[in-house]
Write a structure and sequence with these properties.
3-stranded mixed sheet; alpha+beta; paralog of FGE (formylglycine-generating enzyme)
């Protein structure tokens, strides 16, 4: 846990930062297939930001605005170089993202295409970029940028019980408020990846120390506050729900 006072001091010292460039797609890389983007850089295990707009919701408090350009970096670092799908599976602009996916089914889908599950650290770097953004698109929540501000609908949880596949599919269709991949053109990360925040939650391979091998990242269409470090590690690998999807990764192409 980062000490609040030390964090504040570090943030003040970090005031002299260069402006962040406008978001956009950097374009394809010779190291990756055309429908993927190269994610490359240093991942920091701990990143903290100064919250300027905390809002309470029940017992939880979520941050909707952070101090621009200010980050505290701690813990081990990892050098990352990976190709990542531009869109949520099936990785096609304009397609409806796959949902009702478990960590296991996501593994199988990616493996069938000679890809793999992205790791939690790869996903975090892909979202925050070299500027350590709290959200893929910047420093404050903007509900017009990503599909993340739909109202929550009451769920029939029994429909998702094992063996009730048809009921689960019908309930998923009733609850669906996702958007076709890439429809929100400004919902793009510094590496050119769409819908990392909002739309559907994405399964990743958990970092060491978590209880389960898979975790969910990025929130979904009803969680505007979920950013680049909003890991949901509460579910076992066979869990699937109306908003659970994924995207795939692979090693860069061999030259």
């Amino acid at each position: 846990m980062l000490d609040p006072l030390l964090s504040l001091v570090a943030l003040v010292l970090a005031l002299a930062v260069e402006p962040m460039p406008a978001p956009g797609d950097p374009g394809p890389s010779a190291d990756c297939p055309k429908d993927m983007r190269l994610v490359s850089g240093t991942h920091h295990e701990l990143v903290a930001h100064l919250c300027l707009d905390p809002r309470g919701e029940g017992k939880a408090t979520h941050c909707f605005r952070y101090a621009d350009g200010l980050s505290v970096l701690e813990g081990p670092t990892t050098e990352i170089r990976v190709c990542m799908d531009r869109f949520e599976a099936p990785n096609q602009r304009g397609a409806r993202p796959l949902v009702l996916q478990s960590f296991r089914s996501a593994e199988r889908w990616c493996a069938a295409r000679r890809k793999r599950r992205c790791t939690e650290q790869e996903w975090e770097l892909a979202c925050e970029g070299s500027y350590h953004l709290p959200l893929a698109y910047g420093w404050g929540v903007d509900v017009k940028i990503c599909n993340s501000d739909k109202g929550w609908r009451q769920v029939d949880f029994e429909a998702f019980a094992p063996g009730r596949e048809e009921d689960a599919a019908r309930e998923t269709d009733r609850l669906w408020q996702g958007s076709p991949s890439g429809r929100y053109r400004a919902c793009i990360s510094p590496f050119g990846l769409y819908d990392l925040n909002g739309n559907v939650e994405e399964w990743v391979r958990s970092r060491e120390g978590r209880k389960f091998p898979g975790a969910l990242m990025g929130g979904f269409w009803a969680k505007p506050w979920t950013g680049c470090r909003g890991t949901n590690d509460a579910h076992e690998p066979s869990f699937r729900f109306y908003e659970t999807g994924f995207r795939c990764c692979r090693s860069p192409l061999q030259k």
